[in-house]
Amino acid sequence: GENVEQHPSTLSVQEGDSAVIKCTYSDSASNYFPWYKQELGKGPQLIIDIRSNVGEKKDQRIAVTLNKTAKHFSLHITETQPEDSAVYFCAASRGTNAGKSTFGDGTTLTVKP
Amino acid sequence: DVKVTQSSRYLVKRTGEKVFLECVQDMDHENMFWYRQDPGLGLRLIYFSYDVKMKEKGDIPEGYSVSREKKERFSLILESASTNQTSMYLCASNGMRLLLSGNNEQFFGPGTRLTVL
Predict the structure, then answer these.
(1) Cα–Cα distance, B39 to B41 (Å, whole number)
(2) Cα(B61)–Cα(B44) distance, rounded to whole angstroms?
(3) Where are the beta strands (DSSP E) in A15-112?
(4) What is the pLDDT of residues A33-61, one digit of tens each?
(5) How many CB atoms lie within 10 A of CB A81?
């Protein structure tokens, strides 16, 4: 089955700095790679996703890059703000798998004001 | 907006009790999932269901069962709760319409924090 590894497990940055979280996956058939943000006391919520036919996607301060050959993808947050503090999960899935995803173990991001 | 609700935010039970965790979604989604979340272990899939009365084991089904009698409702059952089942439980759903367009986003409920004493 699919295996997703996520690094680092914790990340602390100063407000205004950039943050990068990296994930690797094992199943070359995976074709959908979402990133979820989980704020305290809430369930994870999708913030950005990328499909295997695209190398990069950007939405304001967040961007995701995908390297299919190396089987890794990364989340980039620029100009971090205290409200970016949360747990971030990457995931990988393939469309034929009844909607299942395999999740990374999560990264706790702390943005210091 | 998709809404996934879970019956309780916090629950405290005693060892050996039978525990029911309920999840309801309002977007007519075919697929529903139960995860447990523990520090450092991410989201681990317990069971999922892709249709009414259908269920499949996830990665850690031992000690759990599920029920899906109606499309919108997916219940997680702990037949005899144990202290090692103390955890955060998350329910999620997604639908075939999105999947067929290549979008495998899962919509999560707020979670139930279960403590077994």
Answers:
(1) 6
(2) 10
(3) 19-25, 32-38, 45-51, 56-59, 62-67, 72-77, 86-92, 102-103, 107-112
(4) 999 999 998 999 999 999 988 899 999 99
(5) 12
Residue A110: how many CB atoms within 10 A of its CB? 14
A25 Cβ under 8 Å from any chain B Cβ: no
Chain B nearest-CA residue for A87: B42
Closest in A43, A100, A104 to B108, CB measured: A43
Of A6, A9, A101, Cβ closest to residue B106: A101
* Exposed/middle/buried for residue A18 (C-beta within 10 Å: 0-12, 13-18, 19+): exposed
Is the CB of A44 inside 8 Å of chain B's CB atoms?
yes
Residue type, A61: R
Q: Is A42 on the interface with B (CB under 8 A)?
A: yes
Check residue A63 and give left, alpha or beta (phi > 0: left; psi -120 to 50: alpha).
Answer: beta
Strand B10-13 relative to strand B112-116, pairing? parallel
Dump strand ranges (E) for B1-117: 4-6, 10-13, 19-25, 31-38, 42-49, 56-57, 65-70, 73-78, 87-94, 107-108, 112-116
pLDDT > 90 fraction of chain B, expressed in percent and rounded: 83
Nearest CA among A104, A84, A92, A71 for reference residue A11: A84
d(CA A75, CA A89): 10
Taking residues B22-28, what's their average pLDDT?
95
- pLDDT of B97 strictly over 90: no
